[in-house]
Write a sequence for this structure.
């Protein structure tokens, strides 16, 4: 058993000692069976939240109305959730009521996919009433029970299903896929913030190409912000060599292929943070510049190394070329620059005003840009007296 599980065994033992059941559940068990690294473990128990709080001296109410208590033990934190069932759902997302139960089977029955409805004892014994191990072995994503019921309970599960396709390189069960196609319109009831989380995980998965094609095939794309008429673009991207792109590069590819002319308003529809929007816009701008010319000292200085490397990576995909040599050249040129930012110049506006005995004005900015370019290109050393002599010689 993996170390994160072993470290959490005392939690389960204390709960059991108090007369209750407790098991490892959820994604950690799934990833353990897949042979993947485990970060956090979740525990499900027959104990009620107040009973958990009476067992452990240090707890935090992180979601007590849903039965979840955070236990602080040996400088680690563990989420422990009471077995529960859920009543009728509201707005295709949240249950009207949560009922605590003492049955593990009832708790597993409410979960989304069979691969996520597996429990494990402290000794590593697997409890798998819905054949999730078979689904994992066959690389199939299948709902627990009828897919239509699961998706009408929580429409975000349709995005989660395709996100798992991307992350795990699994296939959708035929009935699960058909139900997504039939119920894709329910995604309109889900908040953009929650959709963004799933979509960004999808964009970073190893099988993102397959997942993007599924988003288009299933018509889920129609309910994603700004994508209603972008089906052809999604198909186009799904055929590109995008496996090695990071998240910002993936967003930039989307903007470029979909020919989004005004990027900030588009990404604001996704409730994306302004800082991230600005970065994606910078990558796209640098890519457009790269289409017109090769990198120079000046353009690298203006763009910055990180943005330039991402823009070049995207450029190489459109050109269908290996970017390795160009990326190495960019890095070498950038590191050879005398300065990386105007703040590193050994002169400033006050020096110029003093030297010329003139009032401040637009001329100061123009003169600093002239000096900046001369320093970057090695025409003059970045030393105050050298710059003064060069400027007035």
């Amino acid at each position: 058993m993996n170390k994160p599980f072993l470290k959490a065994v005392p939690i389960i033992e204390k709960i059991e000692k108090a007369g209750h059941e407790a098991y490892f559940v959820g994604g950690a068990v799934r990833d353990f069976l897949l042979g993947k690294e485990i970060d956090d473990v979740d525990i499900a128990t027959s104990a009620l939240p107040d009973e958990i709080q009476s067992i452990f001296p240090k707890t935090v109410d992180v979601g007590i109305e849903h039965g979840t208590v955070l236990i602080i033990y040996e400088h680690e934190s563990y989420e422990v959730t009471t077995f529960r069932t859920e009543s009728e759902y509201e707005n295709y997302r949240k249950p009207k009521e949560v009922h605590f139960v003492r049955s593990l089977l009832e708790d597993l029955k409410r979960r989304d996919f069979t691969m996520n409805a597996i429990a494990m004892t402290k000794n590593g014994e697997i409890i798998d009433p819905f054949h999730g191990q078979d689904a994992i072995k066959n690389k199939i994503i299948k709902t627990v029970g009828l897919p239509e019921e699961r998706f009408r309970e929580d429409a975000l599960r349709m995005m989660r299903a395709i996100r798992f396709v991307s992350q795990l390189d699994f296939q959708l069960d035929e009935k699960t896929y058909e139900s997504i196609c039939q119920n894709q319109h329910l995604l309109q009831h889900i908040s953009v913030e929650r959709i963004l989380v799933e979509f960004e995980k999808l964009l970073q998965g190893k099988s993102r190409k397959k997942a993007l094609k599924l988003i288009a095939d299933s018509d889920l794309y129609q309910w994603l912000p700004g994508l209603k008429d972008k089906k052809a673009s999604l198909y186009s991207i799904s055929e590109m060599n995008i496996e090695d792109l990071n998240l910002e590069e993936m967003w930039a590819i989307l903007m470029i292929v979909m020919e989004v002319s005004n990027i900030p308003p588009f990404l604001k529809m996704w409730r994306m943070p302004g800082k991230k929007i600005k970065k994606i816009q910078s990558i796209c701008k640098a890519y457009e510049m790269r289409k017109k010319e090769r990198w120079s000292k000046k353009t690298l200085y203006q763009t910055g190394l990180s943005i330039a490397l991402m823009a070049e990576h995207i450029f190489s995909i459109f050109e269908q070329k290996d970017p390795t040599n160009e990326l190495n050249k960019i890095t070498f040129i950038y590191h050879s620059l005398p300065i990386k930012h105007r703040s590193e110049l050994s002169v400033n506006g006050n020096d110029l005003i003093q030297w010329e005995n003139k009032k401040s004005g637009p001329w100061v900015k123009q003169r600093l840009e002239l000096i900046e370019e001369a320093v970057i290109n090695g025409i003059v050393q970045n030393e105050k007296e050298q710059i003064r002599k060069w400027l007035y010689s």
The chain has a mean pLDDT of 94.
